[in-house]
Specification:
alpha/beta; 8 strands; 2 helices; about 20% helix; two-stranded antiparallel sheet
Length: about 150
């Protein structure tokens, strides 16, 4: 499982011309799920993400967590995080989980994050989404379950 966490000034996701999720200060999180991922792996990444201290304190040091700054989260499923570009120029996505596995796991992640954070928005699994972001920093962290 991979979480690409981008610290935001604002972010939104649009489907068919309608904004379905919009946040201010917080995280835009792109979520990639592979076949071997489980709820236990999701829980581990959620704990790490929520605990990250990547917001500036009064001294300008990245010392504050999402909760410390009353931040919001926008969660977006993105199977292309598992693109394999080793051969040729056309990426392969065989490492990404099939929807039967990834959709329930993505929905689980949304539900679990909502239990821990006051303001959680999400995209729609499998939809063609337009994601907008003003990255604060820029500041981007990649959490990969294989590296934790």
């Amino acid at each position: 499982m991979k979480f690409v966490i981008q610290r935001t000034v604002e972010a939104s996701v649009e489907i068919d011309g309608t904004i379905v999720g919009k946040i201010g200060k917080g995280y835009l999180v792109l979520i990639g799920i592979c076949e071997s991922d489980t709820k236990e792996i999701a829980d581990k990444l959620i704990r790490k993400m929520i605990g990250l201290r990547i917001f500036d304190d009064e001294d300008g040091k990245t010392n504050l967590s999402l909760k410390d700054v009353d931040g919001e989260i926008l969660l977006v499923s993105q199977f292309t995080l598992y693109a394999n570009c080793k051969k040729g120029n056309r990426p392969s996505f065989i490492e990404a989980a099939k929807p039967a596995i990834s959709e329930p796991l993505y929905e689980y992640i949304v539900e679990e994050v909502a239990k821990q954070c006051e303001s959680v928005k999400s995209g729609e699994f499998g939809a063609d989404m337009k994601v907008s972001l003003i990255n604060d920093g820029p500041f981007t962290i990649v959490l990969d379950s294989k590296e934790l």
